[in-house]
Write a structure and sequence with these properties.
213 residues, alpha/beta, Rossmann fold, Arc Repressor Mutant, subunit A, six-stranded parallel beta sheet, 51% helix, globular
């Protein structure tokens, strides 16, 4: 049973999402947080596998609240489900290593696809968010990065972009975690990666993943 915590101060939206998830086999909503204090308390108490969160600029939940959530439950994956359309704020949230970002215009099928992908350790972004990521990527200095990476590094970059952990990537590539760690450091140095989101951007640039993963 996958434990899911909701963080959203729009009660009607949260009630609908709770009702829908409770009717999906294999998922259990452990609580609803509408403030920072409730969020930290529920994270510590339940240690959920998944946090589905919204943030508001002037509300009781904020980007900073999401930033500190990992310290209370480091193994909790975060899926953002928000109506925010501000490009700069979205890019700011993506720096938090969230596993997925959907808009509240997403269909139930898209939300479930995102949840299933994230529970498996992968990432999932809506088309709107991917477009913002790609626009940001296009403004970076253009370099022949494909010539800088070895084939092994490209293979690992693809897995990292999909959200694979060091151990899972090691199992997939039949390498030791130490070797994976070394390859990861080389990728970060060669591509000047500053945040987990940039693994995705570079993987898209190199056509290692499609934008609909």
């Amino acid at each position: 049973m996958v434990k899911v915590l909701l963080a959203d101060n729009q009660h009607l939206t949260a009630a609908g999402l709770t009702h829908w998830l409770q009717n999906q086999q294999g998922y259990h909503v452990v609580g609803l947080a509408t403030s920072k204090d409730e969020l930290t308390t529920l994270l510590q108490k339940h240690k959920p596998e998944l946090l589905i969160a919204d943030y508001t600029v002037n509300g009781q939940l904020s980007i900073d609240d999401l930033r500190v959530s990992h310290s209370y439950s480091p193994n909790t994956n975060i899926l953002i489900l928000s109506s925010d359309d501000d490009r700069q704020r979205i890019l700011q949230v993506l720096q938090l290593d969230v596993k997925g970002f959907l808009t509240k215009q997403s269909t139930q099928q898209e939300v479930m696809s995102a949840i299933k992908a994230i529970v498996k350790g992968e990432k999932f972004f809506s088309q709107q968010v991917l477009n913002i990521m790609l626009e940001s990527s296009a403004k970076r200095e253009v370099r022949e990065v494909s010539q800088e990476l070895t084939e092994r590094e490209k293979e690992l970059l693809k897995l990292l972009a999909k959200g694979y952990s060091t151990q899972r990537a090691a199992d997939e590539m039949n390498l030791s975690p130490h070797t994976i760690h070394t390859h990861r450091k080389n990728i970060i140095k060669k591509l000047n990666i500053k945040s987990p989101t940039q693994f995705v951007l570079h993987a898209i640039d190199l056509r290692l993943i499609t934008i609909n993963f």
